[in-house]
Design a protein that fits this description.
By secondary structure, this protein is mainly α. It has 13 helices and 6 strands. The protein has a domain of 194 residues. A hairpin with a 2-residue loop joins β2 and β3. It is globular, with a radius of gyration of 20 Å. Bound molecules: iron/sulfur cluster (SF4) (3 copies). The site of one iron/sulfur cluster has 13 residues, from α13.
Length: 293
């Protein structure tokens, strides 16, 4: 069964509303104190089943970047597209970041200082699993009614303002004045860059690349229930799908026909919405066979 194009005309509005909904749900989960390790498993499970739906429709950091993009559009300021080779190189080099994080955790087991059976440590992402918290940083809600454990940017009358990765920066640099300066510099740099480059942080994000790793394994490729498809007979090679993609996926344009499997796609459906040819691009949500590229 396919997503009919005429139903997707306002899909970005629906997507933004869903992102907002999840923002408040995640804030609620933070307030009640969700088990971090379990949350991490749930997110990776969602990715196994739905592909990178989390990145397009749930991630709060994605919501912040999309909000900045909406602001830029309202101001009619053009975006910058990264050179294609740089974009693809960034996508590949992020595997190193994800690998390093896994190795940091694994070394405890390899050196024998940690037991595989210390499940409660994983449930709360305590040492030796502490570095896995970086995978949850994109979920950081920017306003909290209590002081976050690793610190915040600033506080106004008991309300704390933070940002993804700020807690990590403050924790690893031990809350020094330099750490706070670096945290502000990170916030300023990512906000300014996201204003000109759509979904800027998604080009670097270790969480996103971990999702991409899942979808790269051939054994898992048949799993995602959601994927884009293209009917090449209807494609006029106008190039709109390539231009509107916030993470600069080119496979949609290049693909001849059939199911499109690319680990860079965040399933935002902007290309489906903007393709001028009726039913040329569609979102399928059925179990279909792997279509290798
Ligand atoms: S790549 Fe990272 S920041 Fe971007 S949407 Fe995915 S999890 Fe969020
Ligand atoms: S927007 Fe549609 S018609 Fe244009 S190149 Fe992409 S798939 Fe083809
Ligand atoms: S390829 Fe289409 S659905 Fe995937 S990220 Fe780009 S615009 Fe969104």
């Amino acid at each position: 069964m396919n997503w009919i194009k005429y139903k997707t005309k306002n899909i970005q509005i629906v997507r933004y509303a869903v992102q907002l909904l999840f923002f408040f749900l995640i804030l609620y989960l933070a307030v009640i104190g969700i088990w971090k390790g379990v949350l991490l498993l749930v997110i990776f499970g969602i990715t196994l089943i739905l592909g990178r739906f989390f990145c397009g429709w749930i991630c709060p950091f994605g919501l912040y970047m999309d909000t900045i993009t909406i602001l830029r559009r309202q101001l009619k300021i053009p975006y910058w597209a990264l050179p294609q080779k740089l974009n693809q190189a960034l996508h590949k080099t992020r595997y190193v970041v994800a690998f390093v994080i896994f190795v940091i955790v694994l070394q405890g087991f390899i050196l024998g200082s940690t037991s595989f059976f210390e499940l409660t440590n994983f449930v709360w992402l305590r040492p030796p699993f502490l570095s896995y918290t970086i995978f949850l940083e994109p979920l950081q809600v920017i306003i909290l009614p209590w002081k976050p454990p690793f610190g915040a940017l600033f506080e106004i009358k008991g309300v704390y303002f933070t940002y993804p990765y700020v807690g990590e920066i403050l924790m690893y640099l031990q809350k020094s004045r330099f750490a706070l300066l670096l945290a502000y510099a990170f916030v300023a740099a990512t906000l300014a860059s996201s204003f000109k480059v759509r979904r800027f942080w998604c080009r670097f994000c270790p969480t996103g690349i971990s999702f991409a790793v899942i979808n790269r394994f051939r054994q898992f490729r048949a799993l995602p229930l959601l994927s884009l498809s293209k009917d090449s007979k209807k494609c006029t090679k106008c190039g709109i799908c390539k231009r509107v993609c916030p993470v600069q996926v080119t496979e949609i344009y290049e693909k001849k026909t059939g199911k499109i499997m690319t680990s860079m796609c965040i399933l935002c459906l902007r290309c489906v919405e903007m393709c001028p040819e009726q039913n040329c691009l569609s979102l399928g949500y059925k179990l279909n066979k792997t279509d290798k590229q």
